[in-house]
Design goal:
Layout (H helix, E strand, L loop, with lengths): L2 H10 L1 H17 L5 H6 L5 H11 L5 H13 L13 H36 L4 H16 L2 H15 L15 H27 L2 H8 L4 H39 L4 H11 L2 H29 L2 H4 L3
Helix pairs in contact: 1-13, 2-13, 6-7, 6-9, 6-11, 6-13, 7-9, 8-9, 8-11, 9-11, 10-11, 11-12, 11-13, 12-13
Length: about 300
């Protein structure tokens, strides 16, 4: 299969994925207990006002009719209007997503640099005390610690005791340091262990052993032979962890009161603001789907067998 044809085909596969996200988010949102019309009316509730509110919100139609209206709005570029403040949903969600994206990218960068570096060190010192400390202690600890617990620990250590960073809020680089580190711990452990495992597998291959027997320097073998063939597994776990970090951002942003998409989603769920919930899930789904697409592109670039093996 040609390079261009493979890329076009893989990109078109994104369409049914996004369509499925709209269906799942739409249905799941309506399974949340609670009626938006009742929550919106509050103490002003009367049967007459309730029926009027449901009609204004479009909740009096069958669910499949509501979905068709929703899909029509999406196709025309209208993501709906918030039930709570009657504001357009798209600018609200997009602004928060930019904050979440900045947080997630920084956390992914921190986790990738630390995880890959320590994975390389552990693999090149296999069986030593350094390997044991990095893989058995740091790696497993990073995979085991709950995100909210790490976030609270960082607040206690760096905000309350040392007073180096603000505990909550947003608005500058100082507000993103602790949330990003909390998320990075979540991904660091798995990236480091997968990097170590992948490198050790490649090091046991005949071409790596032959290169070593020829007297090539250790650094050259690592860069030219080992890392080049271990990138597939490393890229895979890094791409998967990005999606996990987007989900973990919901918890982290809530703990730090960081004004991102996760905090907006939690608030919208509490208020049963269906359009905001749907838009938040859709934006997060698009981000994860595009990340997986980028990972597949990198696969095809790093290892051409991926695209040539496609049918």
């Amino acid at each position: 299969m040609s390079f261009r044809r493979w890329y076009v085909r893989r990109t078109l596969q994104l369409i049914p994925t996004l369509f499925g996200i709209t269906i799942i988010s739409f249905v799941l949102v309506r399974l949340i207990p609670g009626d938006p019309a009742i929550i919106m009316l509050g103490h002003q509730y009367t049967p007459q006002l309730y029926q009027r509110a449901r009609m204004e919100l479009g909740l009096n139609y069958p669910i499949y009719v509501q979905y068709l209206f929703y899909l029509k709005l999406l196709i025309t570029g209208n993501w709906g209007t918030s039930f709570v403040n009657s504001a357009p949903v798209f600018p609200l969600v997009l602004g928060r997503f930019v904050n979440t994206l900045s947080l997630t990218i920084l956390a992914m960068l921190e986790a990738s640099v630390a995880g890959i570096a320590l994975g390389i060190i552990a693999a090149t010192h296999r069986g030593s005390k350094i390997d044991t400390m990095l893989t058995r202690y740091l790696g497993i600890a990073g995979m085991s610690f709950p995100v909210f617990w790490v976030a609270l620990l960082f607040i206690l250590a760096f905000s309350v005791d040392l007073r180096l960073f603000p505990a909550v809020g947003g608005g500058g680089i100082q507000f993103i340091i602790l949330p990003s580190l909390s998320l990075a711990v979540f991904a660091f452990g798995l990236i480091s262990r997968v990097t170590r495992s992948s490198l050790l597998d490649v090091m046991s291959e005949d071409y790596a052993i032959t290169a070593k027997a020829k007297g090539l320097k250790r650094g050259r073998i690592l860069l030219n032979h080992v890392l080049r063939n271990a990138w597939i597994s490393i890229i895979t776990i890094t791409g998967l962890q990005f999606g996990a970090l987007v989900g973990g951002a919901v918890i982290t942003e809530t703990v730090f009161a960081y004004p991102g998409l996760g905090l907006l989603l939690v608030t919208a769920v509490e208020r049963r603001d269906y359009p905001v919930i749907q838009a938040s899930i859709l934006v997060a789904g698009i981000a994860i789907a595009l990340t997986n697409l980028l990972v597949d592109y990198l696969y095809a670039y790093v290892d051409p067998r991926v695209r040539y093996g496609s049918t």
